[in-house]
Sequence to fold (434 residues):
Amino acid sequence: MHSPIEIEEDEITMALAQADVLAGLKEIVEEVAGIPAATVEMDKNFTDDLDVDSLSMVEVVVAAEERFGVKIPDDSVTDLVTVGDAVNFIVNASK
Amino acid sequence: MSIKVAPVGNSRILSVGSYRPKRLVPNSEIVDRIDSTDEWIQQRTGIESRRFAGDDETVISMAKAACEIALKRAKLTIADIDTVILSTISYPFQAPSAATELINELGNPKAAAFDISAACAGFCYGVGMGSDLVRSGTSKNVLVIGVEKLSDYTDPDDRATAFIFADGAGAVVIGQSDEPRIAQTIWGSDADSRDAITLTPSFLDYKKNPTKGVADLGWPNISQQGQTVFRWAVYQMSKAGIKALEAAGITVNDLGAFIPHQANIRIIETMAKEMKIPDSVLIADDIRTNGNTSAASIPLAMDRILEEHPELHGKLALLIGYGAGLVYAAQVVELPPRP
Fold:
């Protein structure tokens, strides 16, 4: 009975928290693209709302890979339309 | 019984020459067909203009013009050249090679001559081979040429590439040296990313479909996956650059100039940031006014930076070529002496 619960707890501890990833991503976007961290929210579209173009997006992705220790393949980058998409991808990839 | 070989010597770049097509094409001539703007192109690539060759400016005529300048500056004639290495992806014949047409035009049809296909890395491939040929004693003076007429292989309606590629030629003469002045070449491939930059269809597609022509099958224009190439170029090529510096036994602080392939100013600037190149090092930015000329871009940029900053003659430069394949080559060279 106890063992499945313990495994779930381990998984929760291993995965990155959404709030921590968002905080880290805010810093990265500010550093790479010069966008004030305060404007980087979950529902913001990288291209339309934050003016992060496709090449800056690559810089954001590579910085995020280093910071969070996850892999974000080239094929997945185009799926990261909003900040929330990126945060959720990183959280899932860290599990 | 042992065989006789020449003692290993040293090599240097004796001179550089270049040819830029006459017609300057500003972004304003490109934007209408791709529904874009001058501002957008400059922001994404740094390109303000590029040069397109006219009908009378061929791969061979441009290469010849660049070689004649390089030979004159080296105080040599074509008769002194025993080897010609030409890099291009835009010579419109599979065989004989562009290099053999070039030596015939230059007036020394007896030199060893061959083409290499390493796209935008081709010039640095050629410098590496030319240097080693001189060092081994196989060759005495080598002409290394990068030349492209990419306007023939660019789709003016392709929103991803129409504004990038351009035409031109650059050449260096590599000869013997008292001291090492071309360091070890760091080169390789990431061929699992061959699809990142392509020219399709193949010539055989036209033969297999005789009733179809270019209108149906398309022309082998360059297409590329921008984000994949950007990521590889910035983060893998900066590592190759660091390895080339280590192989030369120097650091970024010893450089006079950084002359990478002129693919995109954003790649160049981000690569320089990754490599922590200090402000004291001049960074070639020929891309801004002359676009991406593939194999020709490094010698074109080298000639220009020496013209604008003559104090760089004899100083060290890091060259990094990278492109379709994906393939790359990097080396530290001493820039040629003042002519």
